[in-house]
């Protein structure tokens, strides 16, 4: 179905090719997972499949890429649209209409399908992806995860033979991600669709893949194999694989189910260590007592007729890292936006550092609170990375080079002359975070901060957040990444339909939640372990 024959891609001005001498064959009806570090060329590999490389991205493509027998060099994207469906990282950038139902129908209108066929496919897709309640909603009013599902649906209505997805679950809550992956499984197994997807959150996807393609970058050859083959030697792996390596299990598990079957002896070893580990966890918190750094009291926020927040009361101290979790559309982004004055409560109050959030402006706002939004480009305005960093230092009153040093720590290797829109999703996020952190705000708000980040980048982010908390900063994360919450959060707040339904220590809130529990917790339940690092530390102390 898809063939790469000695393919090399070099972008204009680049000193080396992003892909070099790629030979790859993907047969019909396979689900292939593409993984690799941020910026190594995963998106380039995907864009070769529908002809975006080189027809729209520029650069030079040597070798040959064919899809269903069509050479992408001689067939531009419009001539491959009936065969290849593409869901980009940023769904909003690909929308053409304003309403969900219209967007689902647009592609079919473009190729002249009959109205009755269009209607049937729209209804099928609404049901398949759980979008029926959103059919008449404006696309711009949707949460990031809801937009992602609409983008996938708009492609599925075309019934493509090849489906290419770039980070398809990055903005989805765990339940919605499972729905999307289940739908992809049905397409592969029941309809023979070939699915090629890039994803950093291996814990969600690897067990469903037929094969894994590792893109190492720097022109190095691809590594291709079954999930078991690749995970056995991969330098980064999902938590169940890392837990299997720690425990010496063979074969290594790829799913929670496989890991639980092997975990009995490990649970027995850990049972007497639970109480001591819980004590160490509490002692590691850096909460500073006193007035809350940020608080919401009985806050109601409406988006037109929709109540996004319904009487929310929550507070966070300096030194806390609070994860705000919940389904797509639960009100997480609205809550964070309210703390920087982007929404004025209909009733109730939101304060930052004792001041009403909606009254803060300019330097007074920046010096108190920083928000890294779900779309990093919302805070990036310059044409060069270097100019963005210089401007951030100047606006924050920070020493020259502050933002650049933060960026180098979070995403090494980003060049000064690169336009922010030419960065990968993870690199743009790192740049936005560096821009906001240059001001060292006492309160830091992050909306989906690991979207597009590979595991090493996520670990650098975790280390940075822990240092900020240790220095007395208050950090609030709105996230669907349960592994991030397990790794770094001291508290978890769960929202549902704009209301707080849980608020407590991470171990108490997520361990008992089928949706928000991390993989280690699911494997070792009912013991309250959250991460492989916790388990490893406990075993070292006990030995």
TrEMBL record:
CDD domains: ABC_cobalt_CbiO_domain1
Keyword Magnesium attributed: no
Keyword list, A-Z: ATP-binding, Nucleotide-binding, Transport
InterPro entries (alphabetical): AAA+_ATPase, ABC_transporter-like_ATP-bd, ABC_transporter-like_CS, ABC_transpr_CbiO/EcfA_su, ECF_ABC_transporter_ATP-bd, P-loop_NTPase
Keyword Mitochondrion: no
Pfam families: ABC_tran
Domain (ABC transporter): residue spans on this chain: 2-243, 294-522
Gene Ontology molecular function, alphabetical: ATP binding
Domain of life: Bacteria
Similarity field: Belongs to the ABC transporter superfamily.
Protein name: ABC transporter ATP-binding protein
